[in-house]
Amino acid sequence: MKKISIVMLLALLFAFSGCCKDSSAGSINLYPEDGGKTVAEFGGVRISEKYLKTYVNSFNDYLKARYNTPERKEELMTKIIDSEVIALKALKDGVLDDPVLLANIKNTIARHYSGTKMKSKMEEAVKVTEDEMKKYYEENKNSFNTPEKVKASHILIKITDSRDKEAAKKLAEKVADEAVKAAKDAGSFAKLVEKYSEDDGSKKRGGDLGYFQRTEEGGPMIKEFSDAAFALQNVGDISKPVESQFGFHVIKLTGKKEKVEKNFEDVKLNVENTLKTEKRKSIFENIIEEYKKELGLKFDKEAAVAIEITTSEKAGEASKNFDKNQQQRAKLQKPLLTKDQLEQLKNVNIKKNDGKSAEPKDKKVQQQ
User: Fold this and answer.
1) What distance in Å separates the CA atoms of residue 280 and residue 115, rounded to the nearest whole number?
2) What kind and span of H or E run contains 48?
3) Domain boundaries 146-260+308-368, CATH class
4) Helix, strand or coil for residue 279?
């Protein structure tokens, strides 16, 4: 078990604490003998009953239940004693001279301390009042609500060098008529998409564009398309040709999701957890700053940054590719705007939408 496999590291952790030269840091008895019966002896030290009991009681209930039979308890205690023997042998052989091991031990100490004493200190300070929660709710109300959404498929007829606007419109009207006449036949719209649509992206999915919200509410579709889709009343309805900068669209409504508004009581627990998380982060940072001040930290960041970190060429390329992919993903998630739209936005105050919206499946009809 993982818990058992780190016994040696924990033993070394205690050893490190006990080996500190600085008396102000304190010391610890690795093998206290005032804990009742001696269970094991080796190398001049004794493992007490109390020592083992305290250690085992730190396990979670599932692990304790697993080993709570005479046979498995013997297996557990044997593993612990074996690790203690290895730990003492390692200490006698000067294992603490290894700087990597020391760094790992101190990292374990830091994680343990931040998860126990520091955590208790933070929880004592983390208090969220009803007024704070209500204020947060009012300021972020929209993020708790789910806007009305529709799901649609479309057929795109483009205006090309060989097909002017009037010709494209007539073809779109013909396609719309065919779609309406065959509406009751399952799969008929997908067949028309395959036959007529010039939107390669959605064509592979039978014209499906997935769910989206209104453009003015942060939806990804261009306004003409959004308005026409939301104007359709019933699932299965088909629109007349809708003109956009891409050409003419014949839209079929394939799904609807009503708007869901949540009141304060609906999201109170969520708000409380969010505020507590924010406060914990702030308190944690403040505590660390207190420790730095108490211990007189002096940190030469320039010298630290100047330390060379060697790595293989393969790992370096992998890291660069990861960063590149992350940047590309971030670009794809941002709506693309025309010059005219950018000019309009210069005079508009935009508030960040904290709600999460799915990336449109078809970027050809998202806002350009």
Assistant:
1) 12
2) strand 45-48
3) alpha beta
4) helix
Q: Residue ranges of the domains in the chain?
A: 2-115, 146-260+308-368
Print the SS3 string covering 158-185: CCECCECHHHHHHHHHHHHHHHHHCCCC
Is 249 within 8 Å of 198 (Cβ atoms)? no
Q: What is the pLDDT of residues 226-254, one digit of tens each?
A: 999 999 999 999 999 999 999 999 999 99
- Provide the β-strand partners of residue 256: 150
Nearest to 31 by CA among 49, 9, 48: 48
The alpha helices in the chain, defined as continuous H runs, are 2-5, 7-18, 49-56, 61-66, 70-92, 99-115, 117-125, 130-139, 141-144, 165-181, 188-196, 200-203, 223-231, 264-294, 301-305, 313-333, 339-345
Give the predicted TM-score (pTM) of the model: 0.51
**pLDDT at residue 329 greater than cutoff 50:** yes
